[in-house]
């Protein structure tokens, strides 16, 4: 059974960089796409972006200038960096795996991490 | 961006009721539509993918239909564990987007 676990600081200062990792267990990171989704407290879901195990990425244009998603196949991990954060970036951040993707489309996320709350505050 | 709308935004229902939630995409997304259930403090759980395919392990009282721009999630007989928020999600084109959610609570 594939399991995903987010890790990283729960508090980031304004203008700083949010850095999270997602460790995949119970299966290989190879041959799949992997994504990040966030949810501000009490609000809906926002897709941040995803990465193929080979390293190709797609980002949400609303965040593209600030986001970097990378993968480390040797550690079975992928990571998220979001720069120049503000209070608007306070959210629960989830890592997730799409059930199936073509090069441009995906069928939804069937495996999710438990989520980690990141608060942006001084 | 493809905008997703859901109706209703909330519904009060009783155990045993049939509940229908609709989702509309601002442009055609063929069948690249998924539905999720989310309970407080938990990650979303995939219910339906490809608009009408039931995810493994999901009870058969959940069903999905539609293609193009209009989609429906139906719960045929609401159970106590089904009280939650439901989201639709389009994976047709970047950026992927989610509907605003429909909260199903106890009448």
Q: What would the keywords be for this entry?
A:
heterodimer, A: 122 residues, mainly beta, 4-stranded antiparallel beta sheet, 0% helix, globular, B: 107 residues, 7-stranded mixed beta sheet
In short:
The complex is a heterodimer of chains A (122) and B (107). Chain A is an all-beta fold and 122 residues long. Chain A is 0% helix and 50% strand.
SSE pattern of chain B, N- to C-terminal: EEEEEEEEEEE
Principal-axes geometry of chain B comes out as: globular
Mean pLDDT across the residues of chain A is: 97
Strand content of chain B: over 45%
Which sheet architecture does the biggest sheet of chain B show? 7 strands, mixed
Counting DSSP H or I runs of 4 or more residues, the number of helices of chain B is 0
Report helical residue fraction of chain A.
under 10%
Largest interface: A-B, 26 and 27 residues
Mean of the pLDDT scores of chain B? 97
Report how far the terminal alpha carbons of chain A are from each other. Answer: 39 Å
User: What is the chains' assembly state?
Assistant: heterodimer
In terms of structural class, how would the helical and strand content of chain A be classed?
mainly beta
Q: What is the overall shape of chain A?
A: globular
How much helicity do the residues of chain B have?
Answer: under 10%
Counting helices, strands and paired strands, the structural category of chain B is mainly beta
Structure description:
The complex is a heterodimer of chains A (122) and B (107). Chain A is mainly beta and 122 residues long. Chain A has no helices and 11 strands. The radius of gyration of chain A is 14 Å and the shape is globular. The mean pLDDT of chain A is 97. Chain B is mainly beta. Helices cover 0% and strands 50% of the residues of chain B. Chain B has strands at residues 4-7, 10-13, 19-25, 33-38, 45-49, 53-54, 62-67, 70-75, 84-90, 97-98, 102-106. In chain B, strands 2, 4, 5, 6, 9, 10 and 11 form a 7-stranded mixed beta sheet that branches. A 4-stranded antiparallel beta sheet of chain B has the order 1-3-8-7, with no helix packed on it. The radius of gyration of chain B is 13 Å and the shape is globular. The chains are: A mainly beta (122), B mainly beta (107). At the A-B interface, β9 and β10 of A face β4, β5 and β10 of B.
């Amino acid at each position: 059974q594939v399991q995903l676990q987010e890790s990283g600081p729960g508090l980031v200062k304004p203008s700083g960089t949010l850095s999270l990792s997602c460790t995949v267990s119970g299966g290989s990171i190879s041959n799949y796409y992997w994504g990040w989704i966030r949810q501000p407290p009490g609000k809906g879901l926002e897709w941040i972006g995803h990465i193929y195990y080979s390293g190709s990425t797609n980002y949400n244009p609303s965040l593209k200038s600030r986001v970097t998603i990378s993968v480390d196949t040797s550690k079975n991990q992928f990571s998220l960096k979001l720069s120049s954060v503000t209070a608007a970036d306070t959210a629960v951040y989830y890592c997730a795996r799409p059930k199936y993707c073509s090069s441009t489309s995906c069928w939804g996320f069937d495996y999710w991490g438990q989520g980690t709350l990141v608060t942006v505050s001084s | 961006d493809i905008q997703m709308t859901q109706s209703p935004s909330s519904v009060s229902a009783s155990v045993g009721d049939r509940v229908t939630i609709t989702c509309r995409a601002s442009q055609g997304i063929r069948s690249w539509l998924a539905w999720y259930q989310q309970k407080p403090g938990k990650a979303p759980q995939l219910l339906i993918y490809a608009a009408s395919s039931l995810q493994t392990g999901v009870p058969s009282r959940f069903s999905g239909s539609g293609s193009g721009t209009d989609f429906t999630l139906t719960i045929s007989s609401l159970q106590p564990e089904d009280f939650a928020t439901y989201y639709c999600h389009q994976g047709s084109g970047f950026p992927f987007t989610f509907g605003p959610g429909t909260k199903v609570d106890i009448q």
